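User: Could you walk me through two proteins back to back? I'd like the raw sequence and the structure tokens for each, with a short line separating them so I can tell where one ends and the next begins.

Assistant: Of course. Protein one, sequence then structure:
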Amino acid sequence: MNGRTKTGLEILFVAAILGVCGDIFLRVTPWGLNVLLFNLMFAGGTLTMLWRHAPERLTGQTYALLGALVFFASMFAWRDAIELRVADTFTIIVILGVLFLPTLQITAKVAGALQYAISTVWAGLNSIFGPVALLASDINWGEFPMTGWRKHAVAVFRSVLIATPLILIFGALFMAADKVYDGWVRKILNVDFETIFSHGALFMVFAWLTAGYFRGAIFAGAGAVVEPLISIIDSAVERTDESKVDQFRAESGEDPVVLPDNKTVVEHINRSDAPNVGAETKADSRPSDNETSEKKATWSWANIDNSIVPRFTLGTVEIAVILGLVNLLFLSFVIFQVPYLFGGMDLVQNTPDFKLAEYARRGFGELVAVSALVLPMLLATHWLIRKGNRLTENLFRVLAGVQIGLLFVIMASAVQRLVLLTGNLGYGMTTVRLYPMIFMTWLAIVFVLFGATVLRGARQHFAWGALWSAFLILGATHVLNPDAFIVKTNIALAEQGREFDARYNSELSDDALPVLMNSFETLNAESQQIAIRRIAKRYCQKRDEGDFRNWNYSRSKTLEILNSNQALVSEIGSCDQEFLGYRSHEERD
């Protein structure tokens, strides 16, 4: 049995284990501790397979990325907000993609954003289609000895496939012909096929995707590792082609006489005179096939430059026109924003026919979109600059720096709009206002990194820093607890006389309910009743959640607070459908 077959069987074995773990852990919803448990098993399987078959890929970057994967998987057992869960899921997918970069012969630390995206897509394709190659070509099934039970296994399997439809057809007819026989068959086959199918489907999905991912991580890019071995074999073959005299001379240790240009004695004697030295014929000056093949550039994902689109590269004129016009547009907008930026609420209120809602609501989302679009525009423009033109590169640095400076003013304007919208005279905090603000905070860090790397000629370090800054911001967001922060902000505004939206705040995740429950006394009677009605159905659902697999800190703490609040329990009363339907109907009225 060759090494590739053995490795393929190990991949199948590990994938089967993770398939069972995926079915056991992740079939229970809502997800919580089970996501952490599964990812711990997956990280362990990844480390084991790489340690056994690709130890050169176990670098500090690999350990750091696997640690980040486990960290964000653990967040499912801490926070309950759907926005954080979506962000954690997306982050885990990105990490799995970045871990795939070594298969493209790229180091994650110096890869670009485009290469991160390509690696993620490549990892997904391997996960989906890799098992086909693993089963069809990587594992040589012909190497298994067909003795004993293996000799008849194929025949038995083929016979079962043929007999199954016959048994189903005749069995259905017999059951329809006799009621007693029908009852006996149903009693014998009293099996929940739906549950069996769901277990089998989940097992197959997780085992299939895991096998494809591991197959790509180990076998993909293996050709580049084989090249040194081939060169060693070739050199050995070349040595065996030597004559016996040369081999004897080499083994004797004698130092042979070496003439100029490795000429033999006869060739040296018959050498042409000086005037003809260096004369070359056309045939001699023509490069050999080996030389031309060596000059051909080999494709590498690590060296994706704008030479693949030579007609779209940008010179000094293009850079000056494109970034210059965009900067003029940004400058025109900044000129209009400076008075509002420094005038604050007084200027907004004193401007005729200009309302706070119009100023804040209309502008914040658009300015966040502008901030997000500038980054890919600058990266693409920098990538398209013609190589070797220092003037163009310096011009780009100047114009890009000016644009980032103008962008920071625009981002400050967006922050001011959010402060006005959620402040004492505003309309309160919501998720659609807080999360874009967090996203824009990350963008500000990314633009600082852009200036410190790309504008200083170290673009290869930008994507790695941007990735870990995203990890940092997302981790800090979990610590902030956005839903609880929203409720705290809105309750503080209610204490200052602003209207409190009890329906919205009570519909937030379980991260916010402890804050809301502890602040009931500060709410008026109407808001308390609305919040209780909203909490009732959630409380009844939580009483049935007792599986350790979907344990979550926020959900557990919320249920504990609800159970300890006797007034709320007595208010809720019953959890039957009639009660819940009555509560919902009462709320609509």
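----
Protein two, same layout:
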Amino acid sequence: MAINRIFNIADLPLEVAILLIAGLMMLITGILLFPVSTGVLPYYENGLYGLLLFIFALQIVTLGKTPFGDMSRSKPLIVIGVIIAAIGIVVCFIPNLLSQIPRILLFICFTPGGFFLLLQMFLSQEKLRTWVKFGGIFKHLIVGCGAVYVLSIIIGLLVLIHNLLSIAMTAAFGLIFGIAIIYLALVLRKIYLTYPEAENTNPGTVELSTDKMMLLVTGVFMLLLGILLIPVNLGQLPFSGSAQLGLLMVIFSIQMLASGSTPIGSFPRSWLIIIFGLLFAALGIITSIIPGILVKPLTILIGVLNILGGCITLVKTLFPRLKKPQKSGGQVPPILQKLFVTQFIMGFLSILFGSSMLVSHLLPGLVVGVVLFANGCILLYLMSILLILDKMIKQKAVMSDASS
């Protein structure tokens, strides 16, 4: 019976999914910092900072949730979120390139942001006072939010002031913070299931679904990786291969948790997919923070997934055309022709990238950079095509309603 349940569709809101990954991130960091404090394991600080900035950006872009509260998902807010995501990506890849900027940004997000949210919770008519009146699960919401906000203030200070506490004490706070975030995520899930109207009350003016938002973020990731690999291969910049793999695994995990989308195709968003998504996130977090520890197995995994995903994309793209040849006189709409070409190129580039990961020196480093840059461009172009198709479908629906 329990085994069958993992194939059921998961009732996991996007906000809860992102919070679970954030909580897992802090939990794993707290655990790993204990052996780091004794010198047993190495530690890549920028990997953690980049991941945290990326998660903050993801909340802004997909949910309109900023470190200072909920905002309408407008175009300027999306741009700010993408910029923060780009900074997080660069921080992960290139050690110490941006100096103190990531620490200052994280301090602002954690400490003033946490204080502002705590203040908002106490002063807002719709929060603490209302939650106390409702009681029940809302008492747990008060505890969860209060703990996360207070610990957020402390974590921000620990990020800004390096030697404020010992590494072991910092690890303890990170561990507790992770537990608090996961606790809050589980409480929010129960509330959203009981009161569905409480979720996504302010969708904003930007009509971008979660899938398209993830295409945008993944496209930016590929673009930046491709651009940065050029000076890296010319010996002008250092590079963290571990953090690159780790962030890519985290992106995979978010796609799986958000919509059931995997590197080899889309699946029903079952609990099994959620479990795999959390496993991918855990592996990505570990390899981002501890350099070199999982590089070989993750390189093979990502390489194989890219090749399989590319092959499946090519088969899905070409097979319908081979099976059902176009009738004479029939015309394929230009937008669908563009979609076909885009998917074909994307599948080919995915196979090329996966092969370069499995076979060392198959492609020169500069060529890999160009392939990744092209992949990023194709993903962003695909997003624009899908947006046009959505508009065409809506216009057709409006016209059919008007005619009837």
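The chain has a mean pLDDT of 88.

Let me know if you want the two compared in more detail.
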